[in-house]
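Recap from last week: sequence in, structure out.
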Amino acid sequence: MKTSVNPYNGKVLFKFKTLNRKELNDIIETSSQIFDSWRNTTFEHRSELLLNAAKVLRDHKNQYAETITKEMGKPISQSIAEIEKCAWVCEYYAENAKKQLEDEVIETDAHKSYVRYEPLGAILAVMPWNYPFWQVFRFAAPNLMAGNVGLLKHASNVMKSAQLIEATFIEAGFPKGCFQNLLVGSDTIKSIIENDIVKAVTLTGSKPAGSSVASIAGNEIKKTVLELGGSNALIIFDNADLDKAVETCVQARFQNTGQSCIAGKRLLIQQDIAIEFTKKFKEAVQELKSGDPMDKETYIGVLAREDLAEDLEKQVEKSVAMGAEIILGGKRKGTYFEPTILVNVSKEMPIFNEETFGPAIGITIFESEPDAVDLCNASDFGLGVSIFTSDLEKAERLVPEFNEGAVFVNELVKSDPRLPFGGVKISGYGRELSAHGIREFVNKKTVYIKK
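Predicted structure tokens:
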């Protein structure tokens, strides 16, 4: 039995009976059966159904957003935006998948040679709670368009969201079995991956979870894509537009109450502007409204579970004990953690060298470009970095210096259906979204024809 609890008020929302082994195996077997027919449908047919899914999402966006907010505490206005983004990714792949998966003709000594992109079969998605709809749809939309079928093992605290996602595809007209939700615990993941029907796995989550899934899949010689944690730097150079940079950095760190792998978690400021920028940044953060996540004016809600708030509290306290100074916030009450800013942060402190999953950020001062690059790269993570400068030539010159999966200039790191998304180092491997994402779970088949 799994239970969904509202992190804002502690009330039990839903209870779910988990699948027994036979029920689970029957669902997986259904995915195999439907794949045999689904893979042979036309792109036009799949596109029509995916556009239907986008419409279903928009028609039910208030209901779906309320479920997100109640299950994991995201402020309601941000939950609505999440549903709208899911509709966008459906529309993007409905309109672009056919072209992205066209045969790629390659000139050789053959009469004809080309690469075909063919679906693999049932793909398992192990998904997290922080973006309970978006993380799933950015997997599901490209894979269904590619002719694969999906199996979802969602986080146990957002099981209702998982049910609604499956219901969306059914309402949109997808055949039963194309996308199925697995009401199971994490203890069943190993057996699911080992099932011969499951051909590959994608996971968004922590390093330990990614390591475990990759190990199991590797033993079965099955492909994985891992989107793991991040500790993105926000680098403010002395020629940046400070007001715009402040606005962007506040959003980068504090949206979704800081519970995002791609959030800006380390604020690096050039020495000459450090005092002015810190003052402006602190004032902007103080203006953020905390409160009931169901209130549309709320920007800072609660963390999804109390243990997550406790973990952040320990990271802040340890950093303070090592010499950091809190200039705003720092207090926790249950699942709520105040928006928090620390200064005098060094790279040895947890607030710098660990992933902080909540509304807290540390400020570190640098003198020169090489210092900024070194500080940014002094992390085991490599998901993305944001740099703020009016000198775009300098920005492009610095791009190769960062060991990151993405470099955003004068903007927060964000996922966009049109661009590949993923990291390096312990932030994972493989890419989601764009043409790169839809080609992760296909057989790139070489065809060589000689007269």
